[in-house]
């Protein structure tokens, strides 16, 4: 990163290393770190669900997505089939991962210096909603 033009220009002007890190490097790296953390969070949710479903995850008396799915699988074998417990476990797991990803996307849009100052409309909304007159 020290080969980038704005860092070389800051060094030429005699800016301290601390100031270069806080004003130039961290704002350009934080959105990447945030995306990585959220993607790891989503992977950890899935790993916990799989390990608890198999029985090697958390304590079976604790509530987790894997134990809820395993209990719902056993309920599906009953004569009046109870499907909503399985659907609710999957729906809440999807809701948790989706909300974390949408939050990370919003924070990335707010902190990414390359897109800061532009009107940001999520891709799935831009097809359906017109841009208001006078908006940038």
User: How do the SSEs run, as a string of H and E?
Assistant: HHHHH
Main sheet overview: none
Mean pLDDT: 80
- Measured on Cα atoms, how large is the radius of gyration? 23 Å
Give the beta-strand count. 0
Tell me the structural class: mainly alpha
Beta-strand content bin: under 5%
General shape: elongated
- Residue stretches low in confidence (pLDDT < 50, at least 5 long) are none
Helical content class: 55-70%
Keywords, separated by commas or semicolons:
mainly alpha, 136 residues
Task: Please explain how this structure is put together.
The structure is a single chain. The chain contains five helices and no strands. The mean pLDDT is 80. α1 (5-12) packs antiparallel against α2 and α2 (17-54) packs parallel to α3 (65-76). The protein is 66% helix and 0% strand. The chain is mostly helical and 136 residues long. It has a domain at 31-112.
